[in-house]
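Summary for the steering committee. One of the milestones for this cycle was to obtain a three-dimensional model of the protein with magnesium ion bound, which we needed before selecting residues for the alanine scan. The sequence and ligand used are listed below.
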Amino acid sequence: REDGDALIQLKSRKEIEAIARGGQVIAGLFREIRRWVTPGVSTGELDWFADDFIRSHDGAVPAFKGLYGFPGSVCISVNEEVVHGIPSPKRRLKKGDILSIDVGVRLRGWCSDSAWTFPVGEISEATRHLLTVTEESLYLALEAAVVGNHVGDIGAAVMGRVNGTGYGIIRDLVGHGLGREVHEEPQVPNVGRPGHGPPLMEGMVLAIEPMLSAGSDQIRTLEDRWTVVTADRTPSAHFEHTIAITDEGPQVLTGVVPEGYQVLPWPKPETTRMA
Ligand code: MG
Ligand code: MG
């Protein structure tokens, strides 16, 4: 279907700056909240912290609160939960758990979206490896988000990292465009073929978000009608950044990517001109 391309909203430089301001709130939240991700803390308490942190930035609100009726301020998914876990004061973390926090911020009408999976205390070597591969697959996917590539190159980059590990790529859930809305066109699957799908263009803003499981790539939704779990109940990891596609390269708006990846940080480093 090529006619879907017409629905992709390209953003101006100013609009990307506006999205990045919300993105920096999320980046700050992840820097702060990680020290609270410890055994004994409840996911309800983490939700409260996140809500308070976001609203302490003038004009920022948690974009997921009430989105399609979601009850929490952020999504918090533990172990076999992939996404859309509902925070609860009754759900207390244990050593060895992993915890995915998925955060949307709306700031002056512009949305940003990012997720991170944290270890709770010491975790097993096997689970640590799942986190590492998922995080690396995100960075490789971000690198593929360049003008001249297509949406399929992003999924192909995720597959390139995951192939051979035995992990499942959750393909029923996808990344997405965003801007005025949390979810806009195009869909950004975590599987794909190079050169396929909509062409990537300057001004596209995308949430790229590989979700992997230690086993099956199949998912189920629990009776709460929100929480998505792996069908085989193996642990799942989720890493997500919002990026802008620019003529200079992909620019991450919700945090910092480690050195060595071809991704521009926000704000863009000043280009010094010598007279
Ligand atoms: Mg998200
Ligand atoms: Mg998203």
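Key point for the committee: DSSP finds four helices and 15 strands in the chain.
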